[in-house]
Design brief:
mainly alpha, 74% helix, elongated
Amino acid sequence: MQIKNLEQKKRSTDNKDSALTVSPQVSGIQKSGTIYLFLAFFFGFLGVHNFYAGYVWKGIIQLLMTLFSSFLMFIPLLIVFIWVFLEICFVKKDAQNVLFEVNPFLQAAIMIMYLFSLFSFLYFYIPSSILLLNLF
């Protein structure tokens, strides 16, 4: 009788231990890589994609840099654009270390479109900033 009780206690403690040692891949909620990429493309300058992935501090820094960029001739905004492009290229996991499932063709297409929009921004920004500097 005592042996049976000891075996049951051992099984119950084994089950508790195995419940505590669940890998992060199973315990975390998987975020969509497609949603992450689209948020980065459309709202990346506000850091929305980082809030979605759980990188709250990165999102706050990007948001503040964008909001205060008008005081520094929009140079922080350019830094945020480059930062978001690098995140589109290299971020593969969310804050809980759970991998995104991303279609590589979609990622490549968004990278190309984002580069085009970045160069468009530079094409229109640099001449206007030089014109403003010449006025003073």
